[in-house]
Amino acid sequence: MSGVESQFGFDEALLLAEGAAERLKLPNLTLNGVHVYFGTQVASVEALAKNTQCALDTAVRVSTAIGFDCSVINAGGGFPWPYASDATGSDLAGLREALETVWQASPLHGKAQLCFESGRYLCAGSGTLLTTVLDVKIATFPTHAASKPLAMIPNCAATRHAHFVMDGSGPVYMDPPSLDLWPKVDWEPNTETSKRVDLNTLTKEEVASWKPGQTLLLNGKMLTGRDAAHKRIQDMLAKGEKLPVDFTNRVIYYVGPVDPVGDEVVGPAGPTTATRMDKFTDMMLAQTGLIAMVGKAERGPTAIEAIKKHQSAYLMAVGGAAYLVSKAIKGAKVVGFADLGMEAIYEFDVVDMPVTVAVDAGGTSAHITGPAEWQKRIATGEFKGISVNAG
Fold first, then answer.
1. Deepest of 187, 342, 374, 377, by most Cβ within 10 A of its Cβ?
2. CA distance 74 to 134
3. Is the backbone of residue 119 left (phi > 0), alpha (psi -120 to 50) or beta?
4. DSSP label at 109?
5. How far apart are CA 258 and CA 384, in angstroms?
6. CB proximity list for 38: less than 8 A, separation 6 or greater
7. For helices 278-287 and 227-238, angle between their N-to-C axes, nearest 10 degrees
8. Which pTM was predicted?
């Protein structure tokens, strides 16, 4: 329930719309709670209490409209953590009292359980975990005769957990896996199938020439920014304040990079889901001079319309391979909103960073035309003669 179109949840308006309750009456579905996501890195006790109040009010409205007993309210996305090297710890003094006041005033108090996602606040201070995705192993299992595997989709939610038992005898020591278990990854840019783009001299005319599905190799300087930076830009523009960086004829990369380790220029820097920036897209294109965006996953109708209106483009970077993507970044520096830590505005200097044109200046989305094309090809029986071997 993010307030914007997203694959992560429903907007409240959809759940309160006429007929929604009937559509949710499925034989194997039992509703017992509501999860409300209200953003990350919210550092103010007052704001957290206000967001919690909003989550509780939303749970009451949704459970009443749909008609189920709400026994759990999950409020997320976590408490803040100061990622910037010169930042101090989060001051959450008085938070418990503020949340308790809000909770006791809710009609759900005593009837439901209120849960909070601790998120990065619980573990970020313990250090940094770096993981490199080297390959994907596929296991096959017996399936029903009607099961038809169609595709394998990389997921950024890697297996970032470990199983261990604390028996009281002391610390648990775990042996790391040998890197010899995975193949060496050597990627070289293919200039025969991909077009090199100079970001330092990029023009709107060149952006308008890109076609959906075309692969590009980005070179030069790009800016970064995600949720928090976009919200602050929106607030500053509304007040008539000058932005810390000029976006004219620039490309923005939706990313929150991890701090570098050792001789790294930057830590893992994979794209974040672009749909969360959809509500800011028209503003950025209309008021800042931005001409293109790089992110992960599809764009919603609002963003696509803005891209078409301003003759811009949206490019997809490789999701689920943040470490490998970071190897294309040869320089990185903070140029704005340093207090936001990993969500600050960075300037990256990239060399042959691979991307794919997902939405062109005409508003054509590869996430729409691609599936449609494959549906047609499958319907023609083109793939019926292809044998499938399990094992």
1. 342
2. 34
3. left
4. B
5. 45
6. 51, 54, 55, 75, 76, 77
7. 50
8. 0.59
Burial of 265 (0-12, 13-18, 19+ CB in 10 A): middle
The residue to which tokens 């770096």 are assigned: 130
| 140 vs 162: CA distance, rounded Å | 23
The pLDDT profile of the chain, 391 residues, written as one tens digit per residue, is 444 445 556 777 777 777 777 777 777 778 888 888 877 777 778 888 888 888 899 899 988 888 889 999 888 777 766 655 555 555 667 888 888 899 999 999 999 998 887 766 655 555 555 555 555 555 555 555 555 554 444 444 444 556 778 788 888 888 877 878 777 777 888 989 999 999 999 999 999 999 999 999 999 999 999 999 999 999 999 999 999 999 999 999 999 998 888 889 999 999 999 999 999 999 999 999 999 999 999 999 999 999 999 999 999 998 888 888 999 999 999 999 999 988 999 999 999 999 999 999 999 999 999 989 988 888 888 887 776 665 4
Q: Compute the distance between CA of residue 113 and CA of residue 73 in angstroms, rounded to an integer.
A: 6
**Which residue has tokens 């648990």?**
172
Do residues 255 and 204 make contact, with C-beta atoms less than 8 angstroms apart?
Answer: no
Residue 59 contacts by C-beta under 8 Å, 6 or more apart in sequence?
Answer: 33, 34, 36, 70, 73, 108, 112
Rounded-to-integer distance, Cα 391 and Cα 138, Å: 10
Q: Which residue has the tokens 């005409």?
A: 362
